[in-house]
Design goal:
Layout: H1 6-16, H2 21-30, H3 35-41, H4 43-52, H5 54-62, H6 66-77, H7 81-108, H8 116-135
Length: 137
């Protein structure tokens, strides 16, 4: 059997993938342990492998030109904004329902506005409160 060209293989993949939605969903439903739980168990392996891949990361990251990144972002990523926002709206609402009260509480605890030093202190205090919020998970 002759090896297909890269263009032929890519075209076949792009044509066949949308028809695989049922198999994709069946595969997702067949998973018995949350992937995040398995990933958490492998945290040290991840850290070791990440450290070992620093040079590869730098090389591959630097290989993407500004023009290529802009083109992919504008022509592929932008097309997915609306569907992504719609799908993520409940998760965003849940996050904001926790964040907004934390912001209000932090603001209520701030000292009054004053001169530049007082305002810098006020800003730093707010930043510390938001950092604590972020550390809570």
């Amino acid at each position: 059997m002759a090896m297909p060209t890269a263009a032929e293989a890519a075209a076949k993949w792009a044509q066949a993938l949308p028809a695989s939605q049922g198999r994709y969903i069946a595969g997702v439903n067949a998973v018995t342990v949350a992937p995040g739980q398995l990933a958490a168990r492998a945290a040290q392996t991840w850290a070791t492998n990440t450290a070992a891949a620093v040079n590869k990361f730098a090389r591959n990251s630097a290989a993407v030109s500004l023009q290529d990144w802009q083109s992919a972002t504008a022509n592929k990523g932008a097309q997915r904004l609306a569907s992504g926002a719609q799908a993520a709206q409940p998760k965003m609402e849940a996050a904001l329902s926790r964040l907004f009260p934390a912001i209000q509480q932090a603001v209520q605890q701030l000292p009054p506005r004053g001169d530049i030093e007082a305002n810098i202190n006020r800003s730093a205090q707010f930043a510390r409160q938001m950092h604590k919020y972020g550390q809570q998970g």
